[in-house]
């Protein structure tokens, strides 16, 4: 099996690629992250009332919230989506792409664009989100700050409209609506080749891992968008520690926020570790 490093060693150049495919994917990538239109930055350092000129470096690294772009992920983490999809395709890893926590849908749109550009018809894109923002914390592992972020609340209709604007809303795209704790146990994806997690919170990260990790196929890739957020970081290492997961965690090239690992062995999911997280022990004012 080729490594992701082997595939990406020449940046975004891939073997036997037509110039038309490269041009199409570059346009979609740069459009969804707001680079093409040079959209302004919505400051994340204050109360979101401040609008700033575009900072190219921050947008490339996904360190701002674009005012009109449809993903916060940035250039480098979007490239990582392409690299990981090509990795699983080139190595025959079965399964679909699922993103948990999609905001305006830009990253999932790019994933669908990749499959379309490569004429891949037997893999699907799953779009999982509450489409009403982040939940209140169930336990003391999290705080309620995330649930108060109005900017993170994007409706299913808006996300579907964004897919439609790229002519990418088709029968290879599926939506799992609801907070992860409620929706993911019933998500009909059967095999996962790429699991992209963007849940920010400890509990949301655990909801994703406990419900989906067993569906990730050997050779599949787990992407953690929020690895630098302490609660997410702790959830990742708690889950990996409980299950003896020792695969190396790699940093996304050009980025210091996104991380990923390649699944190399099957583990038995210890649902007894998850049950305490399902019981709400935190009072909300």
UniProtKB/TrEMBL annotation:
InterPro entries associated with the record: SAM-dependent_MTases_sf (IPR029063), TylF_MeTrfase (IPR008884)
Signal peptide span: none
Pfam family of the protein (one): TylF
PANTHER family noted in UniProt: MACROCIN O-METHYLTRANSFERASE
Name this polypeptide is given: Macrocin O-methyltransferase
Native organism: Rotaria magnacalcarata
